[in-house]
Amino acid sequence: MTRLGRWVGKHLMITLGLLVLLYMYIPNFIVALMSFNDASQSRNLYQFQGFTWDNWLNPCDPLGMCESLRVSISIGLAATLVSTIIGTLAAFALVRHRFEGRSTMNLVLFLPMATPEIVMGSSLLALFVAAGFGGQLGFWTILIAHIMFCISFVVVTVRSRLGGLDSNLEKAAMDLYADEWQTFWRITFPLVFPGILAAALLAFSLSFDDFIITNFTSGQTVTFPMFVWGAAQRGVPMQVNVIGTLMFLVALGAVIGGEVMSRRRARGRVRAAS
Amino acid sequence: MSPAEQAHGDLKLSGLHKRYPNGFTAVKSLDLVIPQGSFFALLGPSGCGKTTTLRMVAGLETPTAGTIEIGANDITHEKPYKRPVNTVFQNYALFPHLTIAENVEFGPKRRGVKDTRSQVKEILELTELTEQAAKKPAQLSGGQQQRVALARALINRPEVLLLDEPLGALDLKLRRAMQMELKRIQEEVGLTFVHVTHDQEEAMTMADTVAVMNEGRIEQLGTPYDLYTNPRTTFVANFLGRSNLVKGTVLGREGSGDDEVVKVDMHGTVVSIKAGRVHTDSSEGWIGIRPEKVLIQPAGTPVDAPGGYFAGAVVTEASYMGTSTEYRLRMPWGQELICFEQNTGRRGGLVPVGTQVDVSWRPEFAFLLDSSQDAEAGLEED
Amino acid sequence: MASLQRVFGKNAAYLLIGPAAIWLALFFLFPMLSLLTTSLSDPAGNPITGYDLTWRIQNYLEALGDYWPYLLRSLLYAGIATVLCLVLGYVLAYAIAFKAGRWKTVMLVLVIAPFFTSFLVRTLSWKLILADNGWLVETLKALWILPEDGRLLATPIAVVAGLTYNFLPFMILPLYTSLEKIDPKLNEAAADLYASPFQRFAKVIWPLSLPGVVGGTLLTFIPATGDYINAELLGSPNTQMVGNKIQALFTTASDYPHASALSVILMVMIVAMVLYYVRKAGTEDLL
């Protein structure tokens, strides 16, 4: 066998894995590319016509797009805040307490994750209509729906962090003269906080990106995904790709920044261990 | 006034009982006095109730019945953070998000001590951690983490320091070093240390007094020397070191005072056991002898011990271990006994397997245990 | 927690769980009930005035009779997409868990990162990739894989490709979590005991990764079955899934009773399949 053959044999899985990863990035490349597309000359919006900075310089040109972005961000923030608080409390109850109805609650929390969005969306619409709110769909009904489907994900995320917490740490704090509140705020909360933060990020991205449930509960209100959906019927403005690329870069930057910081902290650890 | 000054004196457990909601009784009406300033070890296999006892003293577990007192103060129902007691947890339970210095000053800060700097400096010096003060627990080695756990508890100058298998996570070499270290620190600070462990060697090298626990009860309490040389139950005889236990029939008593002996018939040979080492009233008993007290000599050569000997034993196995050799001997009545022999070189080699040997021991080393007890109690299952 | 319990007394658990329980009862369970009653109501009403509950079972029969091809198509597309996700996802999850070395975290981040770009925007970009005059179609035609008048967009292939792409991370993450827990030494031990690479995978790695396989396939299959975005954006009227129909019945047709009946049928179907599958896979503790 040749050296190349051996190399491929040894690295087959990682090569295939990287190919899959590449496949996952194709749309992102296209989106980034199209954000520089000069679409002013042609109506065929699914072809690259020419390079321009215009889309990046005037991101709010398309009518209603930035307004829809603002709506999505406010709903996302509000849904994140409420669902994170409610979900974190529930996670504490489930991990730290044995109470009647606990297993029922576990099931109820699991169900929204196992239900197709179309069923949840349509059932909410059915409820709002049956309750006579059919004419008042909008910001508040979207928010209610988003909080609902975010809660389960928050609970799952916080619960796993809390479950991994060594309960001896709290006992040690009590042994060292910290009362219940001090133990909670000085030991439990700081240690669970990364889990809460991760849950909040997840909730925000779920809410921000949701289309199906939002579509059923939005009435006349337009969120960013709904704007994209509506635009897709006529021809998507290239600025949508600018927003898509921007979101990707911001998120990636945040993740890399966090990783670099934790690596820096870990470096001393490695030195001490060796 | 700090909690440490509220109560002074011996730690006294009276009728301490713990039954869990699932019906398991971990500790059964325990009575125990641990003198102030002593290094006390609770020794037993896992599940014997030693850790539950410790946790009740720490306030992390509520007793079903009984009281816990330090000096004249009843602390049975005191919250953990109001007791003059601190714990070194099994896996240290160091706060991962705080530095070593912050971990150590956690206790004093909670008790409202304004300036903890000199205290922290002093305790970090005592435990040789000064250079690690600004690091996080995850950056330290196992031995260093262990010392942080110790420093974090000691800085509070508790009346009683509880150590829950504190060396369990360390490797053998570090463990030996830390045993010495702990002993040194205890002597230096003069606090009462209550040390829970399942390692009999650790308990014996460190503690002044050892209590052997089994199934929620204390089997025997005493100095390591007493426990080893004169065990009172088969459990202690087997759990602390090893023992040969041979069935015997009690014939009667002879002599009086210190010289009083009990004569026991052991498969046709009469052996004498000192009255102070007899722990049964029945007509049968287990005659116990430690393996290193068993002497052997190839048949036909004189045995170096007073009194009689048993002839007709055969060496079935010989394991050479450097400083000593472990022989297995098949006795004429079929039982196998163990014999540890120091490799003094006197014999000029090992006794080959299959050799006929005479077996003997000095009568003052034997002990007699109750025949109703299980001869296998306390043997480690492996 | 135990200490909070002392502060709030015995009811602490209910105070903590209360908000979540109430919210989910009001806006998840209650709507489900509402969906059920709507599905049994007289279709003669309209969304503004509401529908009368007449226990009209026919809604179900009519929905099933009229829309069974959509249901079947949904199950088929979602099933194929799930299998494709499993193959692709397993390769990547395996590579990250066992072969990535110190790049593990980086690769995990890279798996999640694309999803910060709005998924509608990404799905639309597939329109460009699969376009009739795009390079992919041209290349496939040049290689004689696709006939001269062949196309990808507006075909079932495009819909399945879109579904596969969109739900791949839901497969990768549970698979990775399972694979990551497997001690690589087990693989070495199997090799030491004369197992060929294929046997090592079939007898050691695969069985140990089953919880991830079950979790991943559920997380992929369930949303894929209910999805209508890929079918709408990448498909044609001939590739519509049940989601498209439900959505159309609710919005354009305003036929809530039949739409609700179809939703309930979809939900029941999925629950039945999931329960059967989970029992078959022997991981009931997953629920």
Largest sheet of chain B: 6 strands, mixed
Widest sheet: strand ordering of chain B: 6-7-8-3-9-10
Low-confidence stretches of chain C: 1-7
Biggest interface, CB < 8 A: A-C, 98 and 97 residues
| CATH architecture grouping of chain C | Orthogonal Bundle
- Gross morphology of chain C: globular
Poorly predicted tracts of residues of chain B: 1-6
CATH superfamily of chain C: MetI-like
Beta strand count of chain C: 0
User: DSSP strand (E) fraction of chain B?
Assistant: 25-35%
CATH hierarchy, class of chain C: Mainly Alpha
Summary tags:
heterotrimer; A: 274 residues; mainly alpha; 2 domains; 12 helices; disordered C terminus; B: 382 residues; alpha+beta; Rossmann fold; OB fold (Dihydrolipoamide Acetyltransferase, E2P); 6-stranded mixed beta sheet; 5-stranded antiparallel beta sheet; elongated; disordered N terminus
Structure, briefly:
Helix content of chain A is 77%, strand content 0%.
Detail the topology: elements first, then pairings:
The complex is a heterotrimer of chains A (274), B (382) and C (287).
Chain A (H helix, E strand, L loop, with lengths): L2 H8 L1 H23 L19 H4 L7 H32 L5 H13 L2 H14 L8 H25 L3 H9 L4 H30 L2 H6 L6 H11 L4 H35 L1
Helix pairs in contact in A: 2-12, 4-7, 4-9, 4-11, 5-7, 7-9, 8-9
Chain B lengths: L2 H4 L4 E9 L5 E10 L4 E5 L6 H9 L6 E6 L2 E2 L10 E4 L11 H11 L6 H10 L15 H13 L5 E5 L7 H18 L2 E6 L2 H7 L2 E6 L2 E6 L1 H6 L4 H6 L4 E11 L6 E6 L2 E6 L9 E6 L5 E4 L11 E11 L3 E7 L5 E7 L13 E5 L6 E4 L12
Parallel strand pairs in B: 3-8, 3-9, 6-7, 7-8
Antiparallel strand pairs in B: 1-2, 1-4, 4-5, 9-10, 11-12, 11-14, 12-13, 14-20, 15-19, 16-17, 16-19, 17-18
Chain C lengths: L1 H7 L3 H28 L18 H42 L4 H9 L6 H11 L5 H8 L13 H25 L3 H9 L4 H12 L1 H17 L2 H6 L7 H10 L4 H26 L6
Structure characterization notes:
The complex is a heterotrimer of chains A (274), B (382) and C (287). Chain A is mostly helical and 274 residues long. Chain A has two domains: 3-41; 66-235, MetI-like (MetI-like fold, Orthogonal Bundle), CATH 1.10.3720.10. Chain A has helices at residues 3-10, 12-34, 54-57, 65-96, 102-114, 117-130, 139-163, 167-175, 180-209, 212-217, 224-234, 239-273. Chain B has helices spanning 3-6, 50-58, 100-110, 117-126, 142-154, 172-189, 200-206, 224-229, 234-239, and strands at 11-19, 25-34, 39-43, 65-70, 73-74, 85-88, 160-164, 192-197, 209-214, 217-222, 244-254, 261-266, 269-274, 284-289, 295-298, 310-320, 324-330, 336-342, 356-360, 367-370. Mean pLDDT of chain B is 87; it is low at 1-6. Chain C is 73% helix and 0% strand. Chain C has 13 helices and no strands. Chain C is globular, with a radius of gyration of 23 Å. Chains in contact: A-B, A-C. At the A-C interface, helix 2, helix 4, helix 5, helix 6 and helix 7 of A face helix 1, helix 2, helix 3, helix 4 and helix 5 of C. Chain A: One of its GO terms (biological process) is transmembrane transport. Chain A: One of its GO terms (cellular component) is plasma membrane.
